[in-house]
Amino acid sequence: MAISHFYPPRRTLMGPGPSDVNPQVLAALAKPTIGHLDPLFINLMEETKALLQYAFQTQNEFTIAVSAPGSAGMETCFVNLVEPGDKVIVCINGVFGSRMKENVIRCGGEAIVVEQEWGRAVDPDAVETALKANPDAKFLAFVHAETSTGARSDAKALCALAQQYNCLSIVDAVTSLGGIELRVDDWGIDAIYSGSQKCLSCVPGISPVSLSAKAVAKIKARKTPVQSWFLDQTLVMGYWSGEGKRSYHHTAPVNSIYALHESLLLLQQETLEASWQRHQTQHEALKAGLLDLGLEFVVPKDERLPQLNTVRIPQGVDDATVRQYLLNEYNLEIGAGLGAFAGNAWRIGLMGYAAKSENVLLCLAALKKALS
Amino acid sequence: MAISHFYPPRRTLMGPGPSDVNPQVLAALAKPTIGHLDPLFINLMEETKALLQYAFQTQNEFTIAVSAPGSAGMETCFVNLVEPGDKVIVCINGVFGSRMKENVIRCGGEAIVVEQEWGRAVDPDAVETALKANPDAKFLAFVHAETSTGARSDAKALCALAQQYNCLSIVDAVTSLGGIELRVDDWGIDAIYSGSQKCLSCVPGISPVSLSAKAVAKIKARKTPVQSWFLDQTLVMGYWSGEGKRSYHHTAPVNSIYALHESLLLLQQETLEASWQRHQTQHEALKAGLLDLGLEFVVPKDERLPQLNTVRIPQGVDDATVRQYLLNEYNLEIGAGLGAFAGNAWRIGLMGYAAKSENVLLCLAALKKALS
């Protein structure tokens, strides 16, 4: 195999993530590497914590970036919080809810599933029924923004239920952080994880995580050690703490943290509210155009994510042919369906830096060509 | 906290890693992000596999990069291979051997420890005694290049023992890959992991892993599921396979793979043999200068790693003061001691791109100033 240097084309990324990375973030990424124990890097980690606290709208002291993708962020929450025998109510309305269930099982927990139709929000009434029926449940886990379907669940209402029934909440915010309203402290979220490569428009590979004081207390009171050494947050706490002597745990992905820091700084400069509004505005423009093209949304209007638009593929249109055409002719990536939606839906992302007018126009014009 | 853009200084990284990253690798890192399911990215993953096979000197079909740091590479090997009750002979001659033991325990395995003085190679005779005494042992695990001490163990001899006593070998090559001779197939290594940020001179955050056919067969025959979903290689196999339809597992750290691909390509262009020789040559020059300064090596001559030189801190010299002086005056990072060596030894790295004459001169001149 003759291998040479890799020169990727400049794509427009309008799938379910990774989204287009802001050029300022790419520039930050390529700055010279310094040591992960360098005082300047330790300070950068402190700043990154503060910026993450802003993005999550939390004062949680335990707010860090896991040195691995969102899937590892999910596992971090489950593997630290759930002990063998713990009962977890898991809401499944797409791929990532199922993955939560898988995590619970691998931790030795018991998963009580609240199943929901794909493409719909989690139903708070069904959740309350499950909470009533399982007074010994310790956790309620759900996905805020289901990346596989484009459905938005009411995180505020679900977390209020969790509190009412004395459960800790575990929330998947991989696709929601930065794109739609999310208030960790106001809503009483206990454990939350996200990804760098969606509405933060950073490179993939990092997973922001925040834990409430109650969640940290549950971890500290564990009777059994966390089964993962790499994801054991009782060890990582010492690594992300700026106070006193930092204890070595693993080598942080230094350059990826440069990029995350820059992307979070850009978000802070824009402000969260402006970012949420921008996603909504671009979504409205895209939606109008998609409806004009005769495409139908999978998710009911009130449950749609602005940053991820899932539409049914019209009868007689071949999924792969269209996506290849968009990629080859216009360097435009849109997402295929996943799971139950494979082959019959497209997922069109408007995430972070990609949520802008020129992308909406390009996507609509290119889809029109593809479908004509 | 007023936070602004981060502009790191240009350090010379001569600690235990991360090492200086080749500017070509940083340039590759910052190329535009494409989708992780883009055909061009899938092809890049195939090329990266082939380049990793060269670096490891293996034909192993299962040769991939774990989307997380070397610690996760270690956990990948243990969590997939070791089932509850499995007996593992673990050689401990530094921090990373201890971490292997911790991994075995968290997988529910039984660790039989062969303890060795810090700063010395693993003793094959002691290992053989342990193998004889434990005929039911299934694995022999050891660190090829102990990053905490600078000691090099005889991986070839140890793997021959593993085969003789019907054990699979698990080898930590985090600091050895690219820096010293390492031949996975010739030596019969069954599971090996490394890191991107040592002698490959890539950014931290990625962990190359290779598994022999025997190791893959052991994983496929597991009676219990792998406790980690994120690191479950039965799922990852489908993600790194170029044949047929790739199954989605997680979002690959696209830009980090660009960087790894470039660093491995540079290694292939230089050739492994030339890289090993370069590390040895620069080590000889550094060693002569360090001895001239009156510094003593911790590790006996025949057991030293050229890429990681551990020397005793002279009496009356304050560890932190010297390291801060080097960093502040010359932007030069050398490593502190770890574990038993904290406060009484320095670890001077000559890894990958950092293994060059100008670094040797700078380090010796700066140390001379610091110690005078």
From TrEMBL, chains A, B:
Modified-residue entries (N6-(pyridoxal phosphate)lysine), positions: K198
Keyword Magnesium among UniProt keywords: no
Domain Aminotransferase class V per the UniProt entry, residue ranges: 33-338
Pfam families: Aminotran_5
UniProt keyword Transferase, yes or no: yes
Molecular function terms, GO-annotated: alanine-glyoxylate transaminase activity; L-serine-pyruvate transaminase activity
Cofactor(s) needed by this chain: pyridoxal 5'-phosphate
A biological process from GO: glycine biosynthetic process, by transamination of glyoxylate
Binding of substrate, residues: R347
InterPro entries named among the record's database cross-references: Aminotrans_V_dom (IPR000192), Aminotrans_V_PyrdxlP_BS (IPR020578), PyrdxlP-dep_Trfase (IPR015424), PyrdxlP-dep_Trfase_major (IPR015421), PyrdxlP-dep_Trfase_small (IPR015422), SP_NH2Trfase/AEP_transaminase (IPR024169)
Keywords: Aminotransferase, Pyridoxal phosphate, Transferase
Record-stated family: Belongs to the class-V pyridoxal-phosphate-dependent aminotransferase family.
Protein name: Serine--pyruvate aminotransferase
